[in-house]
Structure formats: structure tokens, C-alpha cells
Write a structure and sequence with these properties.
It is a single chain. The chain has 283 residues and is an alpha+beta fold. It is built from 14 helices and seven strands. The chain has three domains: 77 residues, no CATH class; 82 residues, Orthogonal Bundle (Endonuclease Iii, domain 2); 112 residues, Endonuclease III, domain 1, CATH 1.10.340. Helices cover 49% and strands 12% of the residues. The strands form two sheets. Strands 1-5-4-3-2 form a five-stranded antiparallel beta sheet, with helices on one face. Strands 6-7 form a two-stranded antiparallel sheet. Strand 3 and strand 4 form a beta hairpin. Helix 4 packs across helix 14, helix 5 runs antiparallel to helix 11 and helix 12 crosses helix 14. The radius of gyration is 19 Å and the shape is globular.
Length: 283
């Protein structure tokens, strides 16, 4: 059993983070469950709403001594949420977002898993992304006890472009193949943990198919770099409406504004802006 305070599982999982793209969330009244797959096994969480207790079970290559660390890191349970939210609560709009979504945390996912999910997210919607990622799990994931694990970069790198395209990837097939090949030979993705935010972002953007927004998503949700502020069309519109009275701003100007206002915690600010805007159809 894991104890979690100031945590809202449903807000966290439904807010466009990597687990949104392949986990199964089943809320039911006061109770609910979350199931997700990794390259090491399968994890299921069971929870009661407004309770601090999360039960879990797992299968695969995990050990009991490591699974709680996996879950706590995955769900951001060790973040100082009160301190972070106090730091970013700079204005009435953000105050409303925090009150509506209190307990939403930023998840920490495997770098490869995060990269695959967000390369897939370009010009796509969550429903389609979920279907494509599930197709890729079924097509390329190692089999374990009759089920498929999350595919490794090696499995994708070995695959033919045509087989990747059969999963519904569309034009993203060659980008997926490219980043998988880079993850298996030459791209020292673990070094990004030690690099500063700007240098890590620049290094990621050297890979085909990874632009400004996708790089920031990978750094935020895969490497825990909370200076990252992913800007898609929706976030741009919400920021323009909430902070600039609807006046158009460039991506660069929004990056500069977010750094000045929220600094090292601006990744959390972005997530609350994104989800509050999405739920309330702002922009």
C-alpha cells in the first residue's frame, strides 16, 4: 500500500500526460483502478476517492523492493505540491486552475516511452494516439504471460516502416523509426538527465520529428525538467486569452513570459493552464 496526500489520480491521468495515451483508468463511484504497462511488466493501482491509500499489484520483471519507487516516481508523489502550487499561484487565472484541479501532479515516465508517445502526438488527438500506441504494443511488445509489454526502442528499430505504418502512424512512421534507431545506437539519452534544460532541449531537437513542443513534453514528462513549458496551439490560445487580452504572441514570447512569471516551476504552470483550458473550452 502507498500513501499519497494532496493527490488526485484522475486529474493527473486524464491531463494529456504519457499515461493518458495507453493506461486504462476505470473510475467507479468512490472506487477506481488504473492499469498501465511498461517494458518491464504490468501495474495495477486501486484507490478510493478522498483516501490517502493506494493499493497496487504487479506482474513482470519487477521486484517488490522496486515497484513502490516506480509508482511513486511515476505519479509524482514525492513532489512538494503545496510548495510548487504556492510558487506558481501568481494571478486569478492560475488560482482558479489550481482550485479546480488541486492534486494534479506531473508524472515521470521512461524517456523512450515518453518520446514515442509525443512523437505520435503531433497533429493528433488523444483518442487516436491511444489506439495507435495500443497497436504498437500489440505489434512490437515482448510477450509476457500471454500479454504484450511496452515496446522497446530495439523492437521498433528492427521493424519495417511498412509494419510501423500498419499501426496507424501515418506520416510519423519515419520519425518513429528514426528516434528508435537513435535510442539504440549513438543517442546518449541518459545524459540528458545531467544536462541543463536548454542544452537538453537543443540536443533533443537534433532528432528528426522532434520540434520545440515535443522536446519540451519529453523533458517535462520523461526527464522531470520542470523548466519545460510545452506550447501547442491550445496552450498558446489560452495564454493569449488569459494573460494578453487575446493579443497574438509568438511561441518565443510565450516562452519568455512563462519563464519570467513561473521560472523553474513553469512546467507545472503549463499543465494547470493546459488542463484548465481544455476542461473549460477556453481558447
Amino acid at each position: 500500500m502507498i500513501y499519497a496526500t494532496d493527490f488526485h489520480l484522475r486529474y493527473t491521468i486524464e491531463s494529456g500526460q504519457p499515461l493518458t495515451f495507453y493506461s486504462i483508468l476505470k473510475p467507479s463511484g468512490r472506487y477506481g483502478s488504473l492499469s498501465y504497462v511498461t517494458s518491464d511488466g504490468f501495474v495495477q493501482l486501486r484507490y478510493k476517492r478522498n483516501s490517502e491509500k493506494i493499493d497496487y499489484s504487479f506482474e513482470g520483471r519487477y521486484k517488490k523492493s522496486s515497484i513502490e519507487d516506480e509508482i511513486r516516481a511515476r505519479l509524482g508523489l514525492d513532489h512538494d505540491l503545496k510548495g510548487i502550487l504556492s510558487a506558481i499561484n501568481t494571478d486569478p487565472f492560475m488560482d482558479s486552475a489550481i482550485k479546480d484541479l488541486y492534486g494534479m501532479r506531473i508524472t515521470k515516465n521512461e524517456p523512450w516511452e515518453t518520446t514515442l508517445c509525443f512523437v505520435m502526438s503531433q497533429f493528433n488527438n488523444i483518442k487516436r494516439i491511444r489506439g495507435i500506441i495500443q497497436n504498437m504494443i500489440n505489434a512490437f511488445g515482448d510477450e509476457f504471460d500471454g500479454r504484450r509489454l511496452f515496446p522497446t526502442p530495439e523492437a521498433i528499430a528492427r521493424a519495417d516502416i511498412a509494419d510501423i505504418r500498419k499501426c496507424g502512424t501515418g506520416f510519423r512512421d519515419r520519425y518513429i523509426k528514426h528516434v528508435a534507431e537513435q535510442f539504440t545506437c549513438g543517442f546518449e539519452y541518459d545524459r540528458l538527465y545531467q544536462m541543463g534544460y536548454e542544452d537538453a532541449k537543443e540536443r533533443l531537437m537534433e532528432l528528426d520529428g522532434i520540434g520545440d513542443k515535443v522536446a519540451d513534453c519529453i523533458l517535462l514528462f520523461g526527464y522531470g525538467k520542470y523548466e519545460a513549458f510545452p506550447i501547442d496551439t491550445w496552450v498558446k490560445r489560452v495564454v493569449e486569452r488569459a494573460y494578453f487580452k487575446g493579443r497574438k504572441k509568438s511561441v518565443r514570447q510565450i516562452h519568455e513570459f512563462s519563464m519570467e512569471r513561473w521560472g523553474a516551476n513553469r512546467g507545472y504552470a503549463q499543465q494547470y493552464i493546459f488542463e484548465f483550458g481544455r476542461r473549460n473550452k477556453i481558447g
